## 1
Amino acid sequence: MPNIDKLPGLKQILGALVFGANRPLKLRELRDCIVEVAEEDETVAVYADVDDKQLRDALKELADDLESNHAGFSLQDSAGGFRLQSDAECGRWLKHLLNAKPHRLSQPALETMAIIAYRQPISKADIEAVRGVSVSHIIKPLMEMQLVRIVGRSELPGRPFLYGTTQLFLEHFGLKNLKDLDKMAPMVLSRKELKDADAVREATKERKASDEPELALEMGDTPTPSVAKDVPEYAVDEDTVKTQRDEGAAGTL
C-alpha cells in the first residue's frame, strides 16, 4: 500500500507538467497524462479518478501561489491551454538577457490585423473595402510574423484567398480564444490609438459578410499553422516582453 502522504500533490504535479511543456497544455491533456500514469503505476493509483473540477481547483491554487509570491512569472490560460508566462513588468531585463530586438507593428498593420481578427475568414478585397486602401504590403509581413495565415478560398469569382489569425496570434496577445478579442486592444495599443481601434472594431461589426461562412470561435477547431521553428521574435510594445518556458529554456513570444 503506497504512502499517500509521500506522494506529490495534484498542484505540484500540474506545476511540473506546465513547467516542462514546450507549449500550452489543455485541461484534457493534463487529465489524460495524470490518469494514464495512475493506471500504469499502482503507487499513484489515487489519481486515477481525477476530474476536471479537481484539476481546475489545483490550477487556481497554483496560480494564486505564484501571484502571491511574486515569482516573476504566472500561470496563464491562453490559446486554449495553460502555460507559465513571465511578468510583463520584468520585460526590460528579459530583453537585455535574451538580446531581443522586438519590432513595432505600425498603425496600418494593427488596423488590418484587427479587421482580419474580427471578420475572419475574410478576403483581401473585403479588408481593403473596410480600410479604403491596398493592404497587400501589410498582409505579407503579418504572415511572416505568423500572426495571420491563409485559411481557405472564397467561392467568389477568382476564388481569392481568405485570411484568418493563427494560434501564435492568440499566444502573442494572451487570449484564450477569439471570444476574448475585446481584451486585445489595451495590450497592443497606446491610449492615443485606442479611439481609432474602437472605430475600426465598430466598422467591422457593422459590415456583414455576404456568403462567407463564420469561423469557429473555439481555436480547438483551428489547426496550428505549420511553420519553421526558428522564426524572429516580434512584439508590439518594446517595454513589454512576455516569455514562456520552452524545453527548460525561456523564449519570447
## 2
Amino acid sequence: MKLLVVGSGGREHALCWALKREQPAAACFCAPGNPGTAELATNLPVTADDLGGLVSAVEEHGVDLTVVGPEGPLAQGLADRLRARGRRVFGPSSAAAQIEASKAWAKGVMAAAGVPTAGSRCFGDVGQALAYVERQPEPLVVKASGLAAGKGAVVCATRAEARDAVRAMLGEGRFGEAGRLIVVEEFLEGEELSVLALTNGWDTVLLPAAQDHKRLLQGDAGPNTGGMGAYSPVALETPRLRAAVEQRILRPTLAELERRGAPFVGVLYAGLMVDREGTPSVVEFNCRFGDPEAQTILPRIAGGLFDALWAAASREPIPAPRMLPDAAVTTVLAARGYPDRVEKGALIEIPADLPTGVVVFHAGTARGVDGQLRVSGGRVLSVTATAPTFRAAREASRAAAERVQFEGKQFRPDIGWREDARAA
C-alpha cells in the first residue's frame, strides 16, 4: 500500500500519523510535508499548489490513495486530475470544493437545500455594500467570499466596524482576489461547533464534534486566527443535535450538490452555531479536515480511519471508524507576531520525555542549514493530549505546551474554557 498526504501543516502531520498507525507497513509520502511528517513518511519536494507535480508524483510512485489536506489544491482541481487518470483520491472535485472556495456560492446551495444559515447578501460593489450595511441591525459579519486561510470573516459589533471591513475588503483589497466578492450576513447568537462528516457523495459518517478557538488571546479576545486550539468531545453535541445536523444540514446539502452535478466525496466540514435551544445553523462549510480539529479528532480514532477514507474515495459504503472514549485537547503554539507579522527563525526545543498520550504535530517548522528545528510559519506546533477526562487532557496539553520552547511563543492556556465551565 502506498499513500500520499498533500499539504505541509499540522493537519497533514496528524493525517500521516493516524494513517501510519493503522497501516504501519504502508509506504507513506507527504508533499511537501514538514519535519514532523519526515519522521513518518517520505517528504516529496512538490508544493501543494503544484498540481502537475503532484499528479506526476502519484504516477511515479504508484500511489494507491491520495488524501488532500488543504482546500487550495481541491478548489484548483487536484482531485479531478487524479480521478481522470484512474487514481483513488479522498477529496472533492473542484466543483464541489466551491462549497468552501466561494461563500457566495455556498449560500446559494444552502438556500436551495433549505439549510438553516444566517440571512445574507453578496456584494462586489463598495457603495451597494455600504448602503446595505446602513439598513441592517447590529452586530454584523462581513466575509471575504473566497479562500482567505481561515481569516476572512470579520465580526463587527457596530455598523461603523462593518463599514470599515467592507472598505478594507472591496476598496483596499485586504484579502486580494478572495475579497473581490463579499458576504454581509446577520450575526448568529450561540456557541460554535465543528462537525466533520466523511462522505462518498450520499452516505455520511459523522466524526465526533470538536470546538475550535479562533481568537488569538485568552477569553476569546484579540484578532481572528486560523485556530489556536480545539477539544473533543463537546457536551453540546447531543444525539438530538447529531441527528439534526445529519438530517437538516448534511444530507440536504449533499443532495443539492449532487443535483448541481457536483457530488461531494471527501470530508464535509460544517461549522455550526448552536443556539440556546440546541438548534444548529451553518456558519460556513469547509471541503476538508479542519485545522486544528484534525489534530484533536484523529488521535481519538482507535481504528478504521484508513478503511473509511478508502471506501469514501471508492464511492462505496463507509464503515464507521472506531472511537476511543478518551477526550482530546489541542493547544496551538504560535510564533511571535502571529497572525499579522510573523517572526521566523527562532530555535525550537521539544522535550524528548513528553508523557504518554501527548503528541506534538508540526506545522510552521523547518530544519535550518544547521539541521536545527526552527520556526517557519505562524502556527508552529499543535500539542495534543488524550486522557480519560476532558480536564486531564486539558491539563496535559497545557503542561506540554509550556515545556516546548521557542522565542516569542504564544499560546492560549484556556482551550476548552466553555467545557470547563459546563463541568463546574
## 3
Amino acid sequence: MIDSKFVNTIFALGLLILMSSSQAKSKDYKLEILDLNPVDLCGKEFEREVIVAPTIGTVIKSDSLIGFELSLSYDPEVVRMNRVLTINTFADRFKYKKSNADGDNGEIIFEGAVDLKGFPNPLSGSLPLVGFAGDFIGDCNDTVVFGINYFFPFDDFKGSVDADTSLEIAGRIVDKPSRSIGFDIEDTEIVLKQDSSTSLNIELDLGELSSLEYWKVRLTLDTDSISINDIVGNNSIIIDDVTIEDDNGYLVDMSILDSDETNIMLNIISSKYDTADVNLNIETVETTECVCATRFPNLEFNFTNRQSKDSVKSSVNYFTEFENVNGLIIPKVNGINVQVYSVLGNKVDEKYCNVNNVYDSNRLKKGIYFIKVTTSNFTKIYKKINN
C-alpha cells in the first residue's frame, strides 16, 4: 500500500512543477496605440476620421487575459472621440462590455470581459484590445496626443504590461495631383512697341478647389524697361493691394469671391527703344491658411518688346520737345500734358504745361507713380519713386 505521505509529496512536487511551468510561459507586454486611419483634412468624410487602437501585441493563452479596463485621454479641442469599435479586436469576443466617453474632459473608457459566469476562455492572438473612433475637428498641422490614463487587466492575468505610451496625430493634407492651383495665359504672342502698352489676361486656375479665399502672388519682370501700370480683377476676384518690390517685382494680394472664372488683367507699359525678349514669372507666395491645395506651380511667360519705325521717330522727338531732369519735366518747344497715376492705375494729378511752365514731380507725396507725358507727336511714360 502506497504511503499517503509519499503521495502528498509527489502531488506537491507536481503542483510546483506546474506552477513553475506556468510562470515560465508568462511574458512582459508593451502597450502601444496604433493609428489606423491617417487623417486627410481635405479628403472624404471617412478620410477625416480618427481611429486608434490600443494593443499589447501577441497574447499567449496561458497568461489568462479574460478582460480589462482601459482609459484613453486626448485633447477635445482637436478631436471629438465618440465611438467604440470592437470588430477585429479582442473586445469583439467579450460577452460583457461597457464604455463611456467624456467629450468635455477628453477621456474615453472601455471595460469588458469574456464571461462573468463559469470558467472563462482566455484571450490569445495578435488582435488590438479595442478600437476608438472620432472626428478630427482641428485645423491644418494641429496635433493631438493620445495617452493611456490607466490599463487594468483582470486579476487572473499572469503577464505584466508597460502602459507608459502615447501617440501623436496631426491634421494633414495628402498630396494629390488634383489638389493644385496655378496660372494660365491664353495669349500665345504679345509684341510691345516702345512707348506703348498692352493688356495681358491671366487665368487663376483653382482646379477642383473651392476653399481658397486669399491668394498672394509675385509677378516679376526681368527688365526695368517694362512696367505693370495696373492690375484689375473681375467679378470673382478683388485686388486688395499691390506692393512694388525691388528688381521690378510686384506682390499682389487678392480676395477670391468665386472659384469660377477667376482672372486678373495686367496693363503692361514699355519704355524700351531696342528689341528684347522679356520674361514674366508668376509664383504663389501665400494662400488661405489650411487651403486644400498641395501643389503651387510657377508660370514663366515670354513676350517681345520690339523696336519699330514709330518708336525710333518718337525717341528723336522726345529729346527735342521736352526733357526730364531730376524729376522736373520741362517743355522745350510746344506745350505738353502731364498725367500722374498711382500703382493701382488711379489718376492723382494732371497739368498742362507750356514752354514757360515746369512740372515738378518731386512735390508728389511719398510713393510710386507712373507719369504720362503727352505731346502732339507721341506719349512718354516714366516711373517715379518718391521716398
